[in-house]
Amino acid sequence: MKDVQTPLNPPSDPSSKKSLSEEIFDTIREPALVLKKDLSILKASASFYAHFNVGPDETIGRKIYELGNFQWDIPELRELLESILSQNSNFNDFEVQHTFKHIGQRTLLLNARRIDHLQLILLAMEDITIRKRIQERLREDEQRIRLLVETASQAVWETDATGHAIKDSRSWRTYTGQIRQELKGRGWLDAIHPDDQERVARDWTDAIMTKNEFNAEYRLRGPEGDWRWTHVQAMPVKNSKGETVKWVGMNLDITDRKQAEQAIQASELFYRQNLDSIPGMLFTTRPDGYCDWQSQQWVDYTGVPLKEHLGGGWNKLLHPDDRQRAYDAWLEAVEKGTPYDLEYRVRRQDGEYQWFKVCGRPIRNEAGEIVRWFGTLLNINQLVQTQEDLQQAKIKAEKATEAKSEFLANMSHEIRTPMTVFLGALEHLRQIDKNPAHKELIDMAYNSGKNLRELIDDILDFSRIEAGRLEIYEEPFDLRARVNEAIGMFSLSSRNKGLKLSWEVTKDVPSIVVGDYFRLKQVLVNLVGNAVKFTHEGEVRVRVQRCGDFLEFSVADTGFGIPEEKHHLLFESFTQVDSSFTRKFGGSGLGLAISKGLVDLMGGEISVRSGEGKGSVFTFTIPLKIAEKQSEATIGATSEDPGKEIFDARILLAEDDPMIQNVITLTLAQRGWQAEIAETGLDAVEKWKRGNFDLILMDLQMPEMNGLEATRTIREKETEGNKHTCIIGLTAHARREIMDDCLKAGMQSVLTKPIQMKKLFSAIDDCLE
């Protein structure tokens, strides 16, 4: 065939301009080729070159099958081109899809059109890679959804927008025994119980008309012809315009729940007919708390007709002071589904109100839903009256205990004040009087004073334990160091008696624990002191070990032992195993009672194993609490450094008792210190303003302004730029909470009266350093 010059042929003159059709061809966005009838390439679009990364030299004039190292030699393409060349029609389209590996697995849709009047073939290409992937993913998702629907335990189905069934799941057909053909249109209604069909059809039609969610419960015929209860929920599916295009529904078998509800209803009827014969008042309510039944006892007691009790009428029969409380509590119980337990007064026929214990309990079905409430009313009028009598007796006893505690605390305070003078004077005499004969008398008086102070401490602690006013504090401390310190107090007395005193803390016990060291030490000192006191020969052993979540302390001795019939007396207050006038050992009988009270407060237990002539083992446990950081703790540590430097200091003594003023002044003079006296808290503040004091010894109980108020006032003034002054509190109150109040007010430390000279000097040295 003779080659005809066409607008698509290359111009004979390369310098001539392109024709309009050629320019249009070059602007095509998709790849395109123009083929001659011998399938050689006449023309290629610019997008073809870009898409396949080739140039005109590799394209123009070459056969289509030879492109890209024969990557275009595709059977489908050959068939396509042979088909189009064999057609007689001048204008036919053919297309084929192919994935080209050499351009990144891209899928192209090849469309060939024969243009007979030009004797050419136009091969256009469209990249459909993304479209194909999307189609494949949609197909996979559709298969996955179809699989889920087919294998779901619930029966799933679809209808068109008018509510006619179009699809169903395998589980639906298994559930109903219907075949797919029977479900078309509204055939599914035939599987519904005749008594439910009209209701379901009406509700289903309403849902379709209103396009609202469809919910219903009805009986559905199973494959064996039995009727099973089902719960149906269907939702409309809408397109982007908000138009309903279909409905998707699901059936859930609730036969067991319905049977349970029916069984409950039957049992309710049975019990309701028999409850009137049971003593006491009974009632039931609906799930929303609306009272729908009360036993005959309610009517007999109140004299009010039953119909006036129902709903919320029962509330009118309650005492006016109890109505709102009872009603609010009932509403809260119904809302939360929690048991109702309350006590209130109900009016009797004669107008008298009596107390009742009321209990309401929700009744739930197998699904956990509340289907009813059941309640009882028990007359507790006599019990309430007895409780009121006991409460009054308790209040009187507590007031008596409180009065006793306050009396003991005040007496302790009043005794501690003169004892400060007494022991301070004796301690001063011990320092200045070197006469051996005098020293023996002074030591006797001083030791007796210390014993008296310890007795006062015991009485005060016991009264606070008994009144429930003793607090346990928790701080980290070094257990081994503190045990050593407590036991070391008895090293001299045990050595003088020829006793071996030993102690051990096992390796599994942590070094730093958390607890109230002072109270722990008090218990240890009591037990070790008793062991040394009642042992004439042999040894006293102390052992601390870990027992799970507890620490176990045991104090064993080889002393006289305690008869078993006397064990019950050991931890009683003011009692002794030997209370006769001829007993060898003194004591108040409070030590072990206080120890038991302290151990109880720390959350532990104390016990004894002993027999007459066999020695004793006292054991107590406390919860083990380990400090977060096992670093060295200094709680409870005391030390004296005789080589300490003595600093010059201006000291202000705020104390209203003249004798204590003299004793402390004499004590300070031993270090070469002089003190200026302030007899009231207000006077102390004024003198502090005018003077330049390094230290203030501040008594707590003073006229006009107490020591706490004076300390707070000084600390507030110091924030205005005045020099910080160290303040040491002095108090006859040994309670820990008083000491805490002192520290919170701004004091550096607190000393309890009677004040010991060593502790006073140590506290002053710490402040001045």
Can you walk through the features of this model?
With 769 residues, the chain is an alpha+beta fold. The protein folds into six domains: 113 residues, 2-Layer Sandwich (Beta-Lactamase), CATH 3.30.450.20; 102 residues, 2-Layer Sandwich (Beta-Lactamase); 121 residues, 2-Layer Sandwich (Beta-Lactamase); 71 residues, no CATH class; 153 residues, Heat Shock Protein 90 (2-Layer Sandwich), CATH 3.30.565.10; 118 residues, Response regulator (Rossmann fold), CATH 3.40.50. It contains 22 helices and 27 strands. A five-stranded antiparallel sheet has the order 2-1-5-4-3, sandwiched between helices. Strand 6 and strand 7 form a beta hairpin. It starts with 19 loop residues before the first helix and ends with a helix.
Q: Judging by the overall fold, what is the CATH architecture of the largest domain?
A: 2-Layer Sandwich
Stated plainly, the CATH topology of the largest domain is called Heat Shock Protein 90
Mean pLDDT: 80
Number of helices: 22
What coarse outline follows from CA principal-axis ratios?
Answer: elongated
The total beta strand count reads: 27
Q: Work out the count of structural domains.
A: 6
CATH class assignment of the largest domain: Alpha Beta
Coarse structural class? alpha+beta
Radius of gyration: 51 Å
Strand % is 15-25%
**What is the CATH homology-level superfamily of the largest domain?**
Histidine kinase-like ATPase, C-terminal domain
Oligomer: single chain
Helical content, roughly? 25-40%
Contiguous uncertain segments of 5+ residues:
1-16, 579-586, 634-643
Distance between the termini: 122 Å
Provide the spatial order of strands within the biggest beta sheet: 2-1-5-4-3
